[in-house]
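User: Fold both of these, please.

Assistant: Here is the first one.
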Amino acid sequence: MSNMKSVYGSSKDNYSFKIKLKSTILFIWFVILTIICLLPIYILIINATRGTAEVASGISFIPGSNLAKNIDILFHDVNYNTVYNVAIGYRNSAIITGFSTVFTVFFSALTAYGIHVYDFKLKEISYTIILLVMMVPVQVTSAGFVNFMLKLNLTDTYWPLILPAIAAPAVVYFMRSYMKSSFPLDIVEAARIDGSGEFKTFLTIALPIMKPAIAVQAIFAFIASWNNFYTPSMVLISSKFDQKTLPMMISAVQASDKFVDYGAIYLAIALSILPIVIVYILLSKFIIAGVALGGVKE
């Protein structure tokens, strides 16, 4: 009897040791990944506080003392003011990105809901076509897209940068995959029995259930639209200063040989990623809530 207890205790201790070892290895691995992801951002912020000579001398992990000077150069230097204005850049990028993000997540969720809930003859074919469109690179269709916008007289406007966000095949694919695992059709049937309309069911039942998926895709859509330089540079042909997005202004600052104040340039780049950080902080709680919900779901 005592031998059985000792064997049982020994196996239990071995299992406990393996669990602790695995947890420790995973913790160390995730710490390394976190450092790898955050290190470039940290260096960017540090360089925004350093002078040109300090930046040219190499990487440093200690903040400099030139932040006030870099701010003064970036906001008050005549040369910078001709191509960079953070207020105008924020305004233009916020208009385009805000509408694009809302259109992307709402209409993608609506499309995924329709494909998941309803049965119709061309259901799978329609979904296959959506996946095929997802595989076509933007660069392949860019010339035709710009030519089409020219014929519609929509160049030098924000419409070509906002309206195409309604069609986001990759987001539809993600939304449908999420609904297949987390959205039971019995809820829709119960809502119909209670007299709820189809669109009302989508708004009041489907969207709240899809909050974690919407939050994830909203972050991705926001980042993609905010950092988009390729499409605005083609559509905004006249390159009017009042129409430029923040990435276009950053590109102009980096491309010109008149700007040699590296600290000011790093500060401009740091200001451009600030909204992305804010949006992630605001939406991350929904992602964490979704993960927690999935962990206790039976």
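And the second sequence with its predicted structure:
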Amino acid sequence: MIIRFNPIAGKCGEIIEKLMSSPDMPKDDSLLFKIRLSIEEAVENIVRYAYENGDGWMEAGTMLNGANLIITLRDAGKPFNPLAKEDPDITLSAEERKIGGLGIFLCKKLMDSVRYEYKDGCNIFTMTKVIS
């Protein structure tokens, strides 16, 4: 399942709900919680930062590959590799920590793999979760 959204401004909730309603999603509530939180963090980042004023498109898709659920988010916004940023120091208090980076850190912890590539003028963010 691949869905294209254009423009993406103000559509975080819609994008998240469409992905979560995919027939590829597992039935296990614990897995769904982890997947939903990861999707929310990744989609929110794209909607907020990829394009000025959210005036751009995003493709969002899910696919089953054996026991793996693969979630792919693709946009043509500003090139940005969220995985290149250093993980936040979660031993520090919220007041001591630098702002930003916690959402992608959560994605990396909750999903089994997270990848980024910039290809053909597009950011491609892929998250994989073993679901069986």
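The two ends are 20 Å apart (CA to CA).
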